[in-house]
Specification:
Elements lengths: L3 H13 L13 E7 L2 E6 L5 E2 L13 H14 L4 H8 L3 H13 L7 E2 L2 E10 L23 E8 L3 E9 L4 H8 L3 E2 L2 E5 L3 H5 L7 E5 L9 H20 L8 H12 L6 H4 L5 H6 L1 H12 L28
Parallel strand pairs: 4-8, 5-9, 9-10
Antiparallel strand pairs: 1-2, 2-3, 5-6, 6-7
Helix pairs in contact: 1-2, 3-4
Length: 325
Amino acid sequence: MNSFKDTYSQLQMIFTRKPEMCPYCGANHIIRFGKYKTTHRYRCMSCRKTFIPITGTAIYYIHKKHKFLQFVSSVNEFGLKSIIKTSKEFNISTLTAFDWRHKFLLSMPLENNSLYRDLGVNNHENKYSQKGRRGTKVFIKSNFQNKKLPDSNLIFFAADYVSKAKLINIGKLKPQFVSRAFNDLNYQKFNLITTLDHDLVNQAIKTKICDLINVVPSRALEYLSLQTLDKFGINFSDHIKKTMRGVATKYLSLYANYFRVYFNRQKYCLSEYMKKLSTWPEYTQMEKFYKTFMHNYSEVKYNNPTKRKWKLWHRFILCNFEYVY
């Protein structure tokens, strides 16, 4: 874990860094506009709002900023711990530990989704879960084994390593849902290798330059990319079921992307986690995104909305929820 001195220097670096765009509207025409304590204030010439370098980042509105950076450093080095262990280790409440964990998950640096070689694609199924949501039936540890619940479908991509994980729908897998997983990927010529049904994938890759190779499941492990996906799927399931004791579907895509980085043994410096200017608004509007996802891509009806609210969340313009879902 970083010492207080190291954390302080990282914090100073974050506060003195010039933002590349406006955290409120995303415009890149910004100017200096005075000072706020020890840092510069900036103004967006598009929406006319003022902000400082940490506005919208994971550290925004956090009072114990040094402690939060130590928490990020700990997770980056040793992986996620339970909410209770985190609460005791950093002397914070369980609700704060929960908030910090999910702000960290949302702040993870975005990957370059340009892929060039053989690309393996597979679906990973998890039972729909509302773990922790008040007003629903009590969560049972064996909930992920309940056959009455529909599946949450995660599409994983891999070449030498897992490069992307995306939650695409809840319920029966259909071609239009699979297409969502391919939307933000940039390709040159490549081979798409998958055990998914041909009709499910064919519609999704109509505009992509690729050769589709459908593999019989019994021969899947002959391909390196599908070996990688198989190994990742087993490890991911073990962590979800044993270590995490289940994960709410609302946060499943965040955990999938975290474990993708964790299993690839990737590590980032602290300042990298503070570059994303949409972390705070994404976290405060997570329920709104989840509601939209449930209405558009789920066979299960959205119910029992959470009632937590944050001040000034409405000042941020977030029209697209596709990064989270």
